[in-house]
Design brief:
The structure is a homodimer of 488-residue chains. The first copy, chain A, folds into two domains: 293 residues, nicotinate phosphoribosyltransferase; 95 residues, Alpha-Beta Barrel (TIM Barrel), CATH 3.20.20.70. In chain A, the strands form five sheets. Chain A has a seven-stranded antiparallel β-sheet with strand order 13-12-1-5-3-19-20. In chain A, strands 7-6-11-10-9-8 form a six-stranded parallel β-sheet. The two termini of chain A are 51 Å apart. The first copy, chain A, has 488 residues and is of the alpha/beta class. In chain A, helix 7 runs parallel beside helix 14, helix 10 crosses helix 11 and helix 11 packs parallel to helix 12.
């Protein structure tokens, strides 16, 4: 697929980024540094948290940002941009800094998981590709984690590629699913590219090709005696699939000293069938044969099947994971929060008739607040330059109830944003994918309240503010709300 | 982004395709030719039809299918495949034929929009990538078409890249949206790659950067006097945005002899605001200034805004289009339907306890049946080898009411599947993207019943069968249903 192999990700941008860039260039504003934040406004599926994913790909993208001759030629062909700007594009490289949460951090609405501090054009041009990457991977990591939680320790594998929204969605979706807790993927390129364990045995076509189900099973077992997993639902699970699987175990595998490793079903009532299959396998002495199920699974169907006692060892989850079917939009946005004026950052804020759409101005840091048990009780927004001293009781503001006097005492505060790119180059070593997966699991096991991890009506994690940050925000809000026609 | 530029789409496959391929290779079955069909089981969003899209990318993918040295090395590293098979992969190219509907064909459930006739391994290896491409593009084309229908002739543009499921979903999604009737896209790479018109003007950040809304508008108008479209909802649409836009028209553009081309709003009540804005613009003599709206639009919100008389000229549609949010899974499947035996194709069929999952066996053709007015009254499945003679009354079978005597009289029948690849090489000239868009529009305007184009409870298009095909299918179904344990 020529387009895939030769394409240039720099051009994955909204056209308005280029019209604005040229506008800034013509007005000679472009050397001025600005601050943009990436943040979400809600968690998917009404959940209590999201998982921040996609940072490694964001960094690779920003490092490689450049316009090829063909790209510049394309812009020239539109007859909207002067030659001076086109020449500027030819030599363009990203010269900004990126601050970000570590990949895999549990995040909450309105927290800047990425902050870009860069010259105006540099910061504007990366909007779309950063959002698409973070939105996609965070969505799939979060959805997968819900499914993994529902499976209560049983293995969950990504089987979604064929229903993914094109190739990237399959491959980066598999990466995100692994971050969210999947044990592996069926997608070969994701295995090759990211080292994710791959699995897969047979499709219905294998059985249909041979026509005879027993012949198909026998051929497969002869070829893969150490790893025989048979698909039972091509014709009739209980009257044909299970008997033929048992016969294969007895007549093909046992004479070789091998065991039938597993069976899979991909249709029908998975709770009922798995219970019947388990009995039939056990009666035949195949207690160690695993039962793997697939077919339109998600956290709700898995919970329901397990509540009915389905003796299932492993779930293959496809379309509802890889598209996050029940809530396929992760709405992270990219908003300007400060502009350099005379060497320091002046905060900027978007006000809106919708309260949730009012932004948090300024260059910020997010602290996660832990109690003595190490549990995360809240997060807190601060000015990035502020010193936050937790050695004595720390007074903070709950912005929804600012009149209440509150303080953290004996707690610890961990800053979540770290500098990851300096002047367009990465300046930290990134964790392995396995380490990211383990970091997610550690936070959910040890730090994040179980009450936030409920599917229905979860506890809302508080996002508090330091008194200094709260005051600055309120003053700016006052100023903008008093803004009258023509005044600014 | 290194992975994007260097990646190999051949490896976008499910691992079971490789375990099966090796199994066939070890059993020396691989030269045998088989038939696989791609078909859907339902239309998205409960609609009456789907749009077939993605064929051009499928053909490019199949033509370029090959394993690099690194790919073969990856399979070697898994220690599951013998050297003989790995050597076979090194030299592998696709040697089959593809039959397909023309891209943009209105299609219905259970119709083979693509049929692969190829040696066993060749046919098996392309399953996942073909499905992911067709599922994604058909989904977005169909969804966009619903949105375009709701807009009743007003322009619809794709603004979705940032919420797409990664880069491909943005770019191929824009292509599919154009097929479905969008007039353009905001995604630059889609414009560059496919020649789709791109549009875009300013984000809220432009206004927030300058702080003063009027200054921001003035700077933009000075830079783009022929194409000034101003975003009005950064602070307050009616008290600040509209007055500043009018002032820009009067004080900046009119002295240059230019007109304000348009305004955009991206939040708030779009019906109420657009009516108020229209009045204010008209009172200021800006009757020709267009109103463009965006913000979580889809076919339902657009219908509702227009029903309330919103005087809107153009819709920018993002997340709900690019993810097909209300139904993000297009469930096309890839099923084996025949196996070569002694030089001819023997039909294969998957039976299932779920009636909808029973497949249509054999190598087939789909005919679209037109009445004297040129309207498509039904489709009909036939054996690919059958001659269908419509010169006299043609008796057909409705498989859901096979006891009824029915015939087509004075109708015409057009075969929908055409040979598009022969022995792995394309053998037709593919239409331009614009031609595909026009083909979709022609069918919906002239051929497809309006009753099938309703959003709610649309008329169901019949899929009839020739008597010969129906008999063959029933005999095979009988045989498989009588199949008892151990018998096959």
């Amino acid at each position: 697929m020529a387009q895939h192999a030769e394409r240039n990700i720099t051009m994955v941008m909204d056209f308005y980024e280029m019209t604005m860039a040229n506008g800034y260039f013509q007005n000679e504003e472009h050397p001025k540094r600005v601050v943009f934040d990436v943040f979400t406004r809600k968690n998917p599926d009404g959940g209590g948290y999201s998982i921040f994913a996609g940072l490694e790909q964001v960094i690779e993208y920003v490092e490689n940002l450049h316009f090829s001759k063909e790209d510049v030629e394309y812009f020239r062909s539109l007859n909207q941009f002067p030659e001076s700007f086109l020449t500027y594009l030819e030599n363009f490289r990203f010269h900004g800094d990126l601050y970000a949460f570590p990949e895999g951090t549990i995040m909450y609405p309105n927290e800047p998981c990425i902050t870009v501090v860069a010259p105006l054009i540099d910061a504007q041009l990366v909007e779309t590709a950063i959002l698409a990457q973070v939105n996609h991977q965070s969505l799939i990591a979060t959805k997968t984690n819900r499914i993994v939680q529902a499976a209560q320790g049983r293995a969950v594998s990504d089987f979604g590629a064929r229903r993914a929204h094109n190739m990237d969605a399959a491959v980066y979706g598999a990466r995100a699913a692994y971050i969210g807790g999947a044990v592996g993927t069926a997608t070969v390129l994701a295995g090759q590219q990211f080292g994710i364990p791959v699995s897969g045995t047979m499709a219905h076509s294998w059985v249909m090709y041979y026509g005879s189900e027993y012949t198909a099973f026998r051929k497969y077992a002869e070829c893969y005696p150490d790893n025989t997993v048979l698909l039972l639902d091509t014709y009739d699970v209980l009257h044909s699939g299970v008997p033929n699987a048992i016969r294969t175990a007895k007549e093909v595998l046992e004479p070789m000293g091998k065991r039938l490793k597993g069976i899979r079903i991909d249709s029908g009532d998975l709770a009922y069938l798995s219970k019947r299959i388990r009995c039939m396998l056990d009666e035949a002495g195949l207690e160690d044969c695993k039962i793997i199920v697939s077919n339109s699974l998600d956290e709700y169907t898995i919970s329901s099947i397990l509540a009915q006692g389905g003796p299932i060892d492993s779930f293959g989850v496809g379309e509802r994971l890889i598209t996050s079917m029940s809530d396929p939009v992760f709405g992270a946005v990219y908003k300007i929060s400060a502009v350099e004026q005379n060497g320091k950052f002046e905060p900027r804020m978007k006000i809106s008739e919708v309260v949730e759409k009012i932004t948090n101005p300024g260059r910020k840091q997010v602290y996660r607040i832990y109690d003595q048990k190490g549990e995360a009780v809240a997060d807190m927004l601060a000015d990035a330059e502020e010193t936050v001293d937790f050695s004595k009781p720390y007074k903070f503001i709950d912005p929804e109830q600012p009149w209440k006097e509150r303080s953290f005492e004996g707690f610890t505060a961990k800053p979540l944003q770290k500098l990851v790119m300096k002047d367009g180059k990465r300046c930290v070593e990134l964790p392995s994918l396995k380490e990211i997966q383990q970091y997610v699991k550690y936070q959910l096991d040890k730090e994040i309240w179980p009450e936030e991890q409920r599917f229905d009506n979860p506890h809302r994690h508080y996002l508090d503010m330091t008194p200094g940050y709260y005051d600055m925000r309120m003053k700016l809000l006052d100023k903008l709300s008093n803004h009258k026609r023509g005044k600014i």
